[in-house]
Design a protein that fits this description.
This protein has about 240 residues and is of the alpha/beta class. It has helices spanning about 25-30, 45-55, 80-90, 140-155, 170-180, 195, 225-235; strands at about 35, 60, 70-75, 95-100, 100, 110-115, 120, 130-135, 160-165, 185-190, 205-210, 215-220. The protein folds into two domains: about 15-90, no CATH class; about 95-235, Glutaredoxin (3-Layer(aba) Sandwich). The protein has seven helices and twelve strands.
Length: about 240
């Protein structure tokens, strides 16, 4: 389940580790088995730790292994970066619509074929987090972020995450391009219908879709923090 709905947030997933679980912060507050301790090891009341986290001055980090119940957390002071990100999060109001995507709404149907002939569709990817990068080989911003995107693929290897990179560039051109600059997303060439249907006019365009097929994040254009943005959104959607 999605814990936070954020737009254009720059944050590391390891900063707020409770977001990796299947419960939201409020649900942990309501769960009587949740344990949160301060730096001295004192167990805090739900009202106490929740109030402190909501103030943005503190955050909680999971200290028990995934799957171990009850989950135990430690409360610590937020870093300046975490405080800034929390302020940005609180400024977001309502759904965001960019290109043909609206956060909180289902992604439209699509059918893609990669350079190896394998097909992908909304239906076939149900139950997986879908990360889509609309790009083309001659766009400097697209090329500049490929190393960071490759890091994401490596980080989430073995997880229920699929990385798609549709482009209108023809297969022959992309094949030559990849010899010089490897791109580890699933590359889909000669894509016209999806690009038109989803109103892609600027590159790069990134989209994150959760396991239920709901768009959770959209961003257009180059950013210096694309790894952090996508890392956070992917983690929250798992």
């Amino acid at each position: 389940m999605k814990k936070f709905y954020l737009f254009l947030i720059i944050i590391l997933s390891s900063i707020i580790t409770y977001a990796q679980s299947s419960k939201s912060l409020k649900e942990y507050k309501q769960d009587k088995s949740t344990i949160v301790k301060d730096s001295t090891g004192k167990v805090l009341s739900a009202d106490d730790w929740f109030f402190k986290v909501q103030s943005n001055e503190y955050t909680i980090e999971q200290i028990t292994a995934d799957g171990v119940e009850p989950r135990e957390f430690k409360l610590r002071a937020s870093t300046p970066e975490e405080k800034r990100m929390a302020m940005m999060r609180s400024d977001r109001k309502g759904p965001i619509t960019l290109a043909g995507f609206t956060t909180g709404k289902p992604i439209g149907d699509f059918n893609l074929t990669d350079v190896n002939g394998k097909s992908y569709s909304k239906e076939s990817l149900a139950g997986k987090v879908i990360v889509i990068n609309f790009w083309f080989k001659d766009a400097a911003p697209c090329k500049a972020e490929i190393p960071e995107l490759n890091k994401l693929v490596k980080k989430f290897k073995g997880k229920d995450v699929v990385f798609l990179a549709p482009t209108y560039d023809p297969l022959e051109d992309v094949t030559e391009f990849l010899k010089k600059l490897p791109f580890n997303f699933i590359i889909c060439t000669d894509v016209d219908e999806m690009i038109i249907n989803m109103k892609i006019t600027k590159y790069p365009t990134h989209v994150v879709v959760d396991k239920q097929g709901i768009v959770q994040f959209v961003t257009i254009g180059q950013t210096d923090h694309i790894f952090d943005q996508l890392n956070f959104e992917i983690t929250n959607s798992l």
